[in-house]
Amino acid sequence: MIFIQKKKRQKKKNTSVSHFSEEADGIKGIIISDIDKLHKAVCIATRISLDNAAKAAGISAARADELAHILEKKSLIKIHYGLLGRAMLYAKDYKEKSNLNTKK
User: Fold this and answer.
1) What is the pTM (predicted TM-score) of this model?
2) Minimal CA–CA distance to 48: which of 84, 4, 88?
3) CATH for 34-91, among 3.30.1240.10, 1.10.1040.10, 1.10.10.10, 3.40.50.300?
4) Which of 29, 52, 76, 83 can bridge 71 by disulfide, Cβ–Cβ 3.0-4.6 Å?
5) DSSP assignment, residue 27?
6) Which residue(s) pair with 90 in the sheet?
7) What is the 3-state secondary structure of 71-100?
């Protein structure tokens, strides 16, 4: 009688990060939320439209608008609506350079 040994399947260690967490600045295991992605996109650009910020964060424009209002309430960004209703997001300490020539 010949016995065939079955090889036990070894469980593969899960080396990948789950779909809702990403690698943050080289540190594994940090969960980055949508609001973190949006805030980072605004801080990097210092001034960005809501649509472009949503694309950079990988979320919908409606979700980005909700999150932008939360960030504005926490005084982390500023939202400015133009005459045509296009929203611009500004980093907290960003001041747009004036085109006016001022004398000192």
Assistant:
1) 0.62
2) 88
3) 1.10.10.10
4) 76
5) B
6) 47, 78
7) HHHCCCEEEEECCCCCEEEEECCCCCCCCC
Q: Are 17 and 26 in contact (CB under 8 A)?
A: no
pLDDT one-digit tens code per residue, 55-81: 999 999 999 999 999 999 999 999 999
**Pairing mode, strands 47-49 and 77-81:** unpaired
Tokens 């979700």 — which residue?
Answer: 63
Structure tokens that stand for 14 in this block: 């899960």
Distance CA 91, CA 79 (A): 9
Q: Tokens 């939202």 — which residue? A: 79
Each domain of the chain, given as residue ranges in start order, spans 34-91
